[in-house]
């Protein structure tokens, strides 16, 4: 009876996952015209096997730069798995972890590359499972030691990881992320009072934030070609819409590269508004 109950719970869990996937697909179909398209672009634009080599290099470098304790955890898991299994060991329980981890990693190896280590957050679903697996492996390893040795080893490892983690966090300016993120809210607060009548924003990285914070409709400069963007802007101006560009500082060169043929871009002059210290988000009103 207990076994049947567990199987029933697992089946219901899978059904809920499938139902959630169908809901998301339905919403994307309603909003973007296809269950395989999201607000970030089409599946073909976001995923490609050509990204694998680049992403392997990026993620490997980021792990060494920012998350080397996770590499220690992986080694602990490997050592723990190599130890003789106890009577209560159930190796089959490791397969869901292995499959889930492989799936997450595979999904992001073919995802469009990014250039900053903070995009390791894509792998956050794996971190919790890895931490649990590392804890189990550490328990098996420490069981081979005497109690004083195990206690000393645990405290030493925890102290080293804590100290080096804090040191690397300071080097990577982790403490500056809060003001870095707040720049978008600060810019939106300055921008909202200036939005007169019908206004459309041209944005990319901050398109979702600007839509949420200003309620203005968005044209994604990174989701259309130059001809389509020119037609949209021409139609907006003709119909009396006010046009603002809102870009992260790092996007400006990308806009110029992607839309080099677009005449009289508003961003080829000082911004009307700007917010941020380490990275600015800027806004221009088209004349």
SSE arrangement:
Blueprint: H1 2-32, E1 37-38, E2 41-42, H2 43-46, H3 52-66, H4 68-82, H5 94-109, H6 124-142, H7 147-171, H8 177-191, E3 199-203, H9 207-214, E4 218-220, H10 226-238, E5 242-248, H11 252-258, E6 273-275, E7 281-285
Parallel strand pairs: 3-4, 3-5
Antiparallel strand pairs: 1-2, 5-7, 6-7
How is this structure best described in words?
There is one protein chain. This protein is α/β, with parallel strands linked by helices. The chain folds into two domains: 29-172, no CATH class; 177-285. Helices cover 59% and strands 9% of the residues. The chain is built from eleven helices and seven strands. The chain has helices spanning 2-32, 43-46, 52-66, 68-82, 94-109, 124-142, 147-171, 177-191, 207-214, 226-238, 252-258, and strands at 37-38, 41-42, 199-203, 218-220, 242-248, 273-275, 281-285. The strands form two sheets. It has a five-stranded mixed beta sheet with strand order 4-3-5-7-6, with helices on both faces. A two-stranded antiparallel sheet has the order 1-2. Strand 6 and strand 7 form a beta hairpin. Helix 4 (68-82) crosses helix 6 (124-142), helix 5 runs antiparallel to helix 6 and helix 8 crosses helix 9 (207-214). It is elongated, with a radius of gyration of 25 Å. The termini are far apart. The relative contact order is 0.08.
Could you write a compact summary of the structure shown?
With 287 residues, the protein is an alpha/beta fold.
């Amino acid at each position: 009876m207990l076994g049947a109950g567990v199987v029933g719970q697992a089946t219901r869990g899978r059904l809920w996952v499938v139902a959630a996937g169908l809901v998301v697909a339905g919403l994307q179909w309603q909003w973007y015209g296809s269950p395989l398209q999201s607000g970030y672009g089409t599946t073909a634009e976001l995923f490609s096997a050509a990204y694998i080599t680049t992403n392997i290099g990026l993620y490997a470098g980021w792990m060494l730069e920012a998350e080397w304790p996770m590499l220690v955890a992986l080694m602990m898991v490997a050592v723990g798995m190599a130890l003789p299994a106890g009577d209560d060991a159930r190796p089959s329980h490791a397969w869901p972890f292995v499959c889930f981890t492989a799936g997450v990693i595979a999904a992001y190896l073919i995802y469009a590359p990014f250039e900053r280590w903070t995009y390791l957050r894509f792998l956050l679903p794996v971190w919790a499972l890895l931490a649990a697996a590392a804890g189990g492996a550490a328990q098996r390893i420490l069981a081979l030691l005497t109690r004083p040795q195990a206690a000393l080893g645990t405290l030493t490892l925890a102290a080293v990881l804590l100290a080096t983690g804090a040191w690397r966090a300071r080097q990577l300016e982790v403490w500056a992320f809060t003001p870095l993120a707040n720049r978008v809210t600060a810019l939106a607060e300055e921008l909202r009072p200036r939005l007169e009548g019908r206004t459309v924003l041209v944005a990319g990285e901050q398109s979702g934030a600007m839509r949420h914070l200003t309620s203005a409709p968005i044209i994604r400069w990174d989701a259309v070609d130059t001809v389509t963007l020119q037609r949209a802007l021409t139609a907006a101006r003709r119909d009396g819409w006010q046009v603002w560009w809102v870009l992260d500082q790092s996007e400006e060169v990308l806009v110029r590269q992607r839309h080099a043929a677009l005449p009289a871009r508003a961003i080829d002059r000082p911004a009307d508004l700007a917010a941020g210290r380490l990275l600015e988000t800027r806004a221009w009103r088209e004349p």
